[in-house]
Design goal:
Number of helices: 8
Distance between the termini: 31 Å
Shape: elongated
Mean pLDDT: 83
Strand order of the largest sheet: 2-1-3-4-5
Largest sheet: 5 strands, parallel
């Protein structure tokens, strides 16, 4: 299976590309809509697209892939999941919408269109809190004081939470 992987997060993109390659997929990587457009001549069987990227949204990538290759399975994978974007992604041609972190087995099952994909484990409350803090901190470009203000907590409390390791589910 030939998979177009579009994600601006380089470490995630390289890990996912390696994991898919190890499972027999041919992976075409792109970091944004512009680079994805240049790689669309390779006729992908499936695409794994991130929602939030600099410049144009992953929804634009979904739209373009679906217009050029309607038979390709498109999976939107995002750390910023919402019902609104899920509905929009499906309207534009995505066949699946997964939130990060997603198990590799679930991603592969979605790319293959397998109906009996392994069930996602429900993350713990600590894990959800950790991911939310990381998102807000990322949105604040690493500024702990601004992130603490947005989260409605004292800066030192946020620093203590950040010094802990990410919870394992």
């Amino acid at each position: 299976m030939k998979v177009l992987l579009v994600d601006d997060d380089e470490p995630f993109r390289s890990r996912m590309a390696r994991a898919l390659t190890e499972r027999g997929c041919t992976v075409i990587v792109a970091q944004d809509l512009t680079s994805a457009r240049h790689r669309l001549d390779k006729t992908p069987d499936a695409a794994l697209v991130d929602l939030r990227m600099p410049g144009e949204s992953g929804l634009e990538v979904v739209r373009e892939i679906h217009l050029r290759y309607p038979a390709a399975r498109i999976v939107m994978l995002t750390g910023y999941g919402s019902i609104t974007t899920a509905v929009e992604a499906v309207k534009l041609g995505a066949s699946q919408y997964l939130t990060k972190p997603a198990a590799l087995e679930n991603v592969i099952a979605a790319l293959k269109g397998e109906a009996d994909a392994p069930a996602e484990e429900t993350p713990s409350l600590d894990r959800i809190e950790w991911e939310h803090i990381q998102r807000v901190l990322n949105d604040c470009d690493g500024n702990v004081s601004e992130a603490a203000r947005r989260l409605g907590m004292h800066r030192r409390s946020l620093q203590r939470k950040l010094n802990r390791r990410a919870p394992l589910d």
